[in-house]
């Protein structure tokens, strides 16, 4: 039986499917890469046309099956896009004096945090920041004696509609989800070094329609936000200089620079749009730099004030937008952070004959990171020409329900970047509801027994009961004396 891992990324401009095999030496061999245009169904990384997205996903699976000559059992999926943001939350538990913190107490704090309700928002992930044990901050409070335990969490939120639409698309396409991952966290694991995460850094993924900002310090995700601006905005701005977007994109790739020295600007230079039209070089430069400056300012605004001076790891740029000439210089000028590098490729060793993967331009980093994250064989039976084969084109051989028959607890997924599927979430909520019902029934039964005990005690201690008991004893004594 074949062995491979399949991952799917839903980007703003394209949906990408990839299949690869992990080798014993730690490298990954890419077996197939397929793409579908997403401009008609996804905007800023979010599904807005369900039918067209379903069709694109079906086409992706069909193409991968044909290339791999095998069925696909399930896939890994990256979650990202507009409106993803992080919110800090604090949960406090007052304890009896000199209580020793246990794992159960920590789990209870995490559970309380994950049950927080945000209007129209879904908690995708909850990153534990640290715990405050009395007056001391600790990463691991277990075993420490205290009377007050405080948990600090970073909740990653996404609009409920976007979350449900994504799940619905895979459900309608008949594609089983092995695991959903928060794409920015998976990407960070594949392009950042441990030293960068530990000493403090900002990962900036410059996409077509969105820019994702992730701040790390002491190996912990401290902030996450998705800005609805990207390379496509630069293209549209260039198009405002009286040209088609296709011409604007071509000119951006050929002439655009994130930063140009004033001395290097030639006021007489004209840039050709086509054989007949031209545009002033100065106007072109001003338009590009204005949008780049806006993107950088929005990125820097997302960095929490307490970490601005703790970025020893610097700023790491990735994504297609990081290929813009002088982008590092532009970031350096606006943020005054000297240490800036561009992550053109992931840290894993990738073996592939695919031309796009050989380029190392940052555009494939997220999908490769998802592939590297997968650890479950996604291969189904080999394809046959059997006329009685009932499996439909574009569908997987298992369902998401099959894969998540037992819902995991929140503590099993917290901090790993795992986003529970809607099916698993519903199962977990149902199990939690049943657990609470059982606990409530047990509590009511205990209360009933306690009430019966108290009623019995009241009867036994009542004046009438004592009098009757006394009379009964008197008569028993009289009878015994007569005998």
From TrEMBL:
Region named Disordered: 443-469
Major localisation: membrane
Q: InterPro entries from the xrefs?
A: ATPase_NBD, Cell_div_FtsA, FtsA/MreB, SHS2_FtsA
A single GO BP term for this record reads: FtsZ-dependent cytokinesis
Please note every region of biased composition (Basic and acidic residues). 446-463
The listed locations are: Cell membrane
Q: Which UniProt keywords apply?
A: Cell cycle, Cell division, Cell membrane, Membrane
Listed GO cellular component terms? cell division site; cytoplasmic side of plasma membrane
A Pfam cross-reference name? SHS2_FTSA
Topology within the bilayer: Peripheral membrane protein
Q: Where is the SHS2 domain?
A: 5-191
What the entry lists under PANTHER family is as follows: CELL DIVISION PROTEIN FTSA (PTHR32432:SF4), CELL DIVISION PROTEIN FTSA-RELATED (PTHR32432)
Q: What functional role does this protein have? A: Cell division protein that is involved in the assembly of the Z ring. May serve as a membrane anchor for the Z ring.
Q: How does it assemble?
A: Self-interacts. Interacts with FtsZ.
- Family note: Belongs to the FtsA/MreB family.
Recorded protein name is Cell division protein FtsA
Give the species this sequence originates from: Segatella oulorum F0390
